[in-house]
Amino acid sequence: MLGSVRYAPDGEPAEDAIEAGASMLAAAEAGWEAVSAAVVAAAVAGVRQCWAGGWYPADLERIVRRETPGTTQAALVVDAVAAEAARPPAARPPRDPRWAGQLRDLGAEVWWPSDGGYLDALAARRRTSRFETAYDVLAALRTLARLPRITPLPAPPRTAGTSGPAGAAADRALGRIRGLLAKAEATDFAEEAEALSAKAQELMARHSIDEALLDRADGPRGGRTAGPSAVRIGIEGPYEQAKALLLDAVAAANRCRAVWAADVGFSTLVGFASDLEAAEMLYTSLLLQATTAMHRAADGLPRARKEPGGTGGTPPARGRSRRTRDFRQTFLVAYADRIRDRLAEATATATATASAASTPAAPDLLPVLAARELAVEETTGALFPDTAPVRLRGVRDADGWHQGRAAADRARLGEG
After folding, report:
1. CA distance 408 to 193
2. Dmax over Cα atoms in the chain, in whole Å?
3. How far, rounded to the nearest angstrom, does the alpha carbon of residue 103 sit from its chain's CA centroid?
4. How many distinct structural domains can be found in the chain?
5. Is the pTM higher than 0.85?
6. What confidence tens digit (pLDDT) does each residue in 35-69 have?
7. Is the residue at 264 inside a domain?
């Protein structure tokens, strides 16, 4: 029955197969508890197939939420992830340290009393019949079984830890960066937000340089880390292209590479661990700031058009002028374009300052950074040998372009 559900063609054949399967489960002679236990076992097997196919918990929930209507299937997939996580671990390589955090963020916990009681507990929670419950579960199992394989992430890097003075200094630097970004997100003044973000990027660049020199000083055979690693960052709609462009700008400034996979809704960042952490932190903050600035600009422009002269005509309808998809898409693309320049300038300034301050006994900074950038490029090429540029669409609103660049260009770098 599961085979007929999984492999039925999309559309009416799939709906018919799921309905037939749900009817069979609801009336199965083995009993509802036995059916429930079998369903949970099938869900665990489906999730493990996804892990083998390169998926992580957050990626799995995101793609199901993107591809299916409503929230039912995504919630059922989270239950399947929780059931798999509760099983004794099978023989497998070490998981990325982020794995446990993703499970916590998803709320992937076993809330039902037993495998045999899962379907009854689910029906009671959602107030659905046995047929409806079975239908939804089979639809979720079909979705899991039909997900494609994706590029697996490299194994988590081996590290010697960050204890001692070096670890304390790194913690202090990251604490200062988080503090600056938190202030940037909290302020209502765009100029202050951008100045704080620019200062945070300078500190990130300095922290990256310190990590590179420490890694080099710990030995010629890889130092404290095994090389570049990778993380996935979700790109949520709307305006996915513009958001992916912003992430690419942040990644480049932090000596990482970003590869966007539009069909599955995420970008993969490749880089050294400390740079990946900085890039993800800054992207999250800048995306929030850009979105806030975009809404502010969309709301304010119609009023600004009416104000000159005091008696101007009726401002254009927001739904057809400022508050359009073109305006917002163009705004975010322009913001990302200008942010790229400013972050690159901040990184170059920090690098030049650190290079000038290096002692004669210290290794030359620029070759160290060049070697790390080459390692990142080689790792990216090995993971994604067939990348292609993306043609941006919807970038045709002149006001959106000027407003977006202005939102990223009000503050001078280095202030804060």
Report:
1. 10
2. 81
3. 15
4. 2
5. no
6. 999 999 999 999 999 999 999 999 999 999 988 88
7. yes
